Amino acid sequence: MDPETLEEAPAAAPAPRRRPFIQFLRAPIEARSYTNLLFLALAFPLGLAYFIFLTVGLALGVGLTLIWIGLPILALVFAGSWGMTALERQLAIHLLGAAVPPMSPMTATAPSAPRGFWRTVGDFLGNPVTWKGMGYLLIKLPLGVITFAVTIFLLSLSAAFLLAPFAYPLGLLELDGVVFAIDGPWSALLSGVIGLLLVFLSLHALNGLAWIWRTLASAMLGSERFAAPALPAPASFS
Q: Do the beta carbons of residue 129 and residue 222 sit within 8 Å?
């Protein structure tokens, strides 16, 4: 091809970006908004279950180590923590769309020599995801409480104002002990418009909260050093 033709060839156009206003309006019709909501709704009950399992199991295991009963308890706690971390990783990937690295080295296709028990235990305890994942499970409860409170507050407030026109025949709309008087059709309509705006704002706020969870999951539920499988050494023909 002629060099002049190469110089005249236009560069590839960048991918079109959505305008902020269009992106703002699309929140209620995007599936990701609702998968984010599902993840946020599950954060508190799952965080409570993880916290109880880990605190009770670790306390029993450490306390009974002197009579050796604590060792199998600790083994069970670590195995359960690994399974819960794997569950959280899948939830983050499928509900939040997080790009989470693998939790352990990817298995090679070539058969490898069997690993001994103690080496397997050493690799497990030396894996940073073992400890980062357990930390993620422990902080999920306090963060889940905050997430639950924010989610319930925003959704309740939005629904209260949005349903105000339908509550107009009753004359009152009560939310958490605060009474809003609807003294006419125009005030009811205004409340509905405010509620519609709150729906958009709440969804974006909750999507932002989900982004925080997505960032945490990407950092704590996997390791970048496991992102690519180790390539086998090339065969030598000399």
A: yes
Q: Is residue 181 part of a domain?
A: yes
What domain range includes position 72?
21-104+126-224
Whether the pLDDT of residue 11 is over 90: the answer is no
Environment class of residue 200 by beta-carbon count within 10 Å: exposed (0-12), middle (13-18) or buried (19+)? middle
CB 195 within 8 A of CB 159: yes
Adjacent-strand bridge partners of 172: 181
The one-character DSSP state at 225 is G
Q: Is residue 236 part of a domain?
A: no
Point out which residues pair with 179 in neighbouring strands. 174
**170 domain-assigned:** yes
Contact predicate 143/136, CB 8 Å: no
pLDDT tens-digit readout, 146-201: 999 999 999 998 888 887 777 665 555 444 444 555 556 677 778 778 888 999 99
